[in-house]
Specification:
The protein is of the alpha/beta class and about 450 residues long. The chain is built from 14 helices and 22 strands.
Length: about 450
């Protein structure tokens, strides 16, 4: 039994005093978990204390808040990192020099999870695949906690009955700081350039993603994208299963006409579901559903469970979400597309020459060539917003007619006036949102409000 004031956190961690760096959603959940188990917590955040929503932590006697410029507190046993905290922060450098373990919030929670763990990572499609896998596993009769990067922090889901399946969306940032995390089934969906302001290059970013499999063992399952060479080459000691829209695989599932078919070495083929069963637009969502199905199969889901889950599934907010259709014009919110690879996936299935595409925000420096080529085929007009507008005007100069709208409200108003029956207006920015919005979700919410206002005012031909 732990001594008074010491938190028994499993995995051999008996910590009395812990630094939690970043007190947003995951940091607050980590702090609460630590406090509930008896540790004292020092919170660190670079934001103005008046801007922080500490909730009950503000009156917790064993919680204190210090600024980023404070010296490293004495008597620490470890540091818990919130996603997105840059590793070069001076306090973190001091903690490493002092020999303190630095772990992610997910790693903090992992030894306390009393049930199977499913992990999902990738540049794009993580949230949809996580939600789909959760729905499929639940349809198979399991109690499921869908958490991580998709919404609630894993630390906030620790307490509860044993035997629950934890389906966790994981960013590369979270995967950087793991010591014991071992998912029973895990998927790496794809790899495209992203977050290169954080990583030295694509190889470093890929290594962070691939580490999701680092501690898997025989009996675990690794789900990999056979159509993505870097992902397909990932190493795991578990069973490697593949999904593909384009070719046959020896172990996993593939798209055969309208059917998603599971194949196993030396075994019969099994139809898992049909493309028409999937209530989501886009070829990329076929890939997401295949990956989710293989994860669910690892937890014992049957084909009828998968089909039942798909029948009740709806698109997540801001991921190719249909906002409205009026007068033959469809409006789509794809605000979650924060890089060019995601925008390319969303454009690919829309009819040629019909798309009014709203692009821009805070650029990430990734390769635009695929979207430039698709825009030349798909776009009727481009509406450029945010910090990237001037750069995009040059990049897309020969792809389609361009309007430098500057702001989202002007882009929506112009698209409403220009769109004709059969057209689609698509917000798929290929950029981060932080130049003009709090988050991609805030940007998507504002877009939807603007669309509904424009249609209420009789904007456009619709």
């Amino acid at each position: 039994m732990s001594a008074p004031g010491t938190a028994d956190l499993g995995g051999g961690r008996h910590w009395r005093r812990v630094l939690v760096y970043g007190v947003g959603t995951s940091g607050r959940a980590a702090a609460r978990l630590l406090l509930d188990r008896g540790a004292a917590v020092v919170g660190v955040d670079g934001r103005d204390p008046d801007a922080l929503d500490l909730g009950p932590l503000a009156v917790e006697p064993r919680f204190e808040l210090v600024g980023e410029d404070a010296p490293l507190p004495r008597g620490l046993d470890g540091v818990v990192l919130s996603p997105g905290v840059p590793p070069e922060r001076p306090l973190l450098a001091a903690a490493r020099e002092a020999g303190l373990p630095l772990i992610s919030e997910v790693e903090l929670a992992f030894p306390l999870l009393a049930g199977p763990v499913v992990g999902v990572t990738g540049t794009n499609g993580k949230s949809t695949t996580t939600a789909l896998a959760g729905a499929m596993i639940e349809a198979a009769g399991h109690a499921v906690e869908v958490c991580g990067n998709i919404g609630d922090a894993v630390s906030s889901r620790v307490d509860g009955p044993p035997g629950r399946v934890f389906v966790i969306e994981l960013s590369s940032y979270q995967l950087e700081a793991m010591e014991s995390f071992r998912p029973n089934a895990a998927a790496w969906l794809n790899l495209t350039p992203d977050h290169l302001d954080r990583y030295a290059g694509l190889d470093a970013y890929a290594a962070a993603k691939e580490s999701i499999f680092a501690r898997q063992r025989t009996g675990d399952v690794a789900v990999l994208n056979a159509d993505d060479p870097r992902t397909a080459a990932a190493v795991s000691r578990g069973r490697r299963r593949f999904f593909s829209r384009l070719a046959r695989v020896a172990d996993g599932c593939l798209l055969a006409g309208d059917e998603i078919v599971e194949v196993e070495p030396g075994g019969a083929e099994t139809v898992l579901f049909r493309r028409g069963d999937l209530p989501l637009a886009g070829a990329h969502n076929v890939e997401n559903a295949m990956a989710a199905a293989l994860l669910a199969r690892a937890l014992g889901a049957e084909p009828e469970d998968l089909r039942r889950a798909l029948a009740g599934f709806r698109a997540l907010p801001h991921r190719m979400e249909r906002v409205a259709e009026a007068g033959g014009v469809s409006w789509w919110d794809d605000s979650k597309a924060t890089n060019f690879a995601a925008t390319a996936k969303s454009l690919a299935d829309l009819p040629d020459g019909t798309v009014h595409l709203i692009l821009g925000g805070r650029g990430k420096g990734d390769d635009p060539s695929q979207v430039v080529a698709l825009a030349a085929a798909k776009a009727k007009r481009l509406y450029l917003v945010g910090e990237a507008a001037d750069h995009f005007a040059s990049v897309f100069a020969d792809a389609a007619p361009i309007e430098r709208s500057g702001t989202l409200d002007r882009a929506v108003a112009s698209a409403a006036a220009a769109a004709r029956p059969g057209d689609a207006v698509l917000l798929s920015p290929a950029c981060a949102s932080f130049d003009q919005f709090r988050s991609f979700a805030h940007r998507g919410d504002v877009f939807q409000q603007l669309v509904h206002a424009a249609l209420a005012d009789g904007g456009g031909e619709g």
